[in-house]
Amino acid sequence: MNKNNSNLTWFITGLTEAEGCFNINIYKTKAGKKTAKLRFSIAVMENDLELLKLVKDCFNCGTISESRTNGMRYFTVSKISDINNIIIPHFQSYLLRGTKLLDFEDWVLAANIIITKSHLTEEGIEKLQLLFDGMNRKRNKLENFLPDHCNKNSSLFIPINGNYISGFIAGDGSINIHPFSLTFDSLKFCSIFLSITQHKNNLFLMNEIKDFFNVNNKLKIQSNNSVQLLIENKEFFRSTLIPFFNKYPLHGIKLINLNKIIKILELINKYGINRSNSYTSDIRKEIINIWFAET
């Protein structure tokens, strides 16, 4: 790993928790024999390419590619020596906290099978298939999943790291303004929010993040088995979120939205706007122009 980017280590773990994948690929060679290879990847939208370049530079390995079908961008590491010497040691030092940790642990077992050349045997392929069949979306009933290092009553407990949360938000968070609130006649003008959404299997992780920010907002369980933390509060941005990102820097496309919101809040403070007075049409226009300005 590039030591010049050591401050990004926890950030990358958080980003991986949100957008990463540990994959086992079992396939047949041209000779018809089954074999296998591993792949670690992080996927982002095409406008977040710079985020993947940051990850690649930090790991100093892997490739970046573009999907031919959906425009997504992928950072991928498939070289077994890089997986063994860089990727696995990283996540053994900077631990995942959600259910993706289980995928990583199975993936490490798979790596050992491949490193020892056992995947060249029928027995080895069978073991890899069993691991593959239980990974990623095939897992279920994990609502109470709690790793020892996330359990405050365990001697192995490690407090959640702010850079991890920053990376997690860079992947699965939304720092935004409700579109309906950016009109000249909106009664709730400029409604900014932070939203983080995960599968309900990561309910404990979501509570960890909520507790880290010390907010009373209740987590919302959605009908699609997801859980959402939604904070719609300008004062939260001023007193908590912006200072948080000053300490634990955000990277990627969501940093653009954050910087626009910072400018808008500075403007609101400049004009002394609060709940008891309204936005003039000129101020509304100025805020709308800031938000929709191209970067």
TrEMBL record:
One cellular component term (GO) for this entry is: mitochondrion
Any single GO molecular-function term of the entry would be: endonuclease activity
Which stretches are transmembrane?
Answer: none
List the InterPro entries. Answer: Homing_endonucl, LAGLIDADG_dom, LAGLIDADG_Endonuclease
Q: What are the protein's UniProt keywords?
A: Endonuclease, Hydrolase, Mitochondrion, Nuclease
Asked if the Swiss-Prot or TrEMBL record annotates the protein with the keyword ATP-binding, the reply is no
The residues covered by the Homing endonuclease LAGLIDADG domain are: 12-108, 165-264
One protein family per Pfam: LAGLIDADG_1
- Put simply, this protein is called LAGLIDADG endonuclease
* Species annotation: Podila verticillata NRRL 6337
